[in-house]
């Protein structure tokens, strides 16, 4: 039986990447750096998991001397702390979950399924973001919130998902993951989970061939999925009954 749903946080549960991009750029200005990550560049940098790692990768790309790059790398921890603070302020101003997420989380909770969230973002922001997106009651229903600080390796390594499964006390075969990035899909698959991919505008061009199912979103009764997706899925939106029907063991069905 399906016993647990595990959601990636940034990009899957909430489309926060524009807030992250703005927070990075504000942090750069706070350090008097003339860097500006526009949308195409940021979409490219999303292939790197973790904010500090993205800054380091960006520094690697700059046409600077080794000594200059070394000096900039020393700024990365402070830059990332500043970015994290700014991102928290942006989240506090208001965020909204992606279509279908709150509905499906509530339905799964009411049915007794365990709920987990994995986040590549800092723990300082994960709980605030989760609460802002789901509301305090549903956020409290999440039994496992695992962040990057708790594991040795980031996505595409399986560490986040392995810790989430251990915390939820469910086997991988009884859980379903929701992801928006190729790295996230790879991480969940490496942990033995089955995966539904719902790419955001930032990750839509990535390779999702390893996902068990790819959808534009989970859909809502008032905003159903497009007709082509509905025909492939056999439903106007994703609900728990569909997940149990289509993704029952021993293998997922494919659209």
Structural features, described:
Mean pLDDT is 93; it is low at 251-255. This protein folds into 2 domains: 4-15 and 96-246, HAD superfamily/HAD-like (Rossmann fold, 3-Layer(aba) Sandwich), CATH 3.40.50.1000; 17-92, Putative phosphatase, domain 2 (DNA polymerase, domain 1). The radius of gyration is 18 Å and the shape is globular. By secondary structure, it is an alpha/beta fold. The chain has 12 helices and 6 strands. Helix content is 46%, strand content 10%.
Keywords:
255 residues; alpha/beta; Rossmann fold; DNA polymerase, domain 1; 2 domains; 46% helix; globular
What's this model, at a glance?
It contains 12 helices and 6 strands. With 255 residues, the chain is α/β, with parallel strands linked by helices.
- Unreliable segments (pLDDT under 50, ≥5 consecutive)? 251-255
Q: Give the termini distance in whole angstroms.
A: 20 Å
The percent range for strand residues is 5-15%
Number of strands: 6
CATH top level of the largest domain?
Alpha Beta
What general form does the structure show? globular
| Protein structure class | alpha/beta
Order of helices and strands: EHHHHHHEHHEHEHEEHH
The total tally of domains equals 2
CATH superfamily of the largest domain: HAD superfamily/HAD-like
Task: Please state the second-level CATH architecture of the largest domain.
Answer: 3-Layer(aba) Sandwich
What CATH calls the topology of the largest domain is: Rossmann fold
Write the layout of secondary structure elements.
Elements: E1 4-8, H1 17-30, H2 39-45, H3 51-61, H4 66-73, H5 76-92, H6 101-110, E2 114-119, H7 123-134, H8 136-140, E3 144-147, H9 159-168, E4 175-179, H10 182-190, E5 194-197, E6 213-214, H11 227-233, H12 240-246
Parallel strand pairs: 1-2, 1-4, 2-3, 4-5, 5-6
Helix pairs in contact: 1-5, 3-5, 5-7
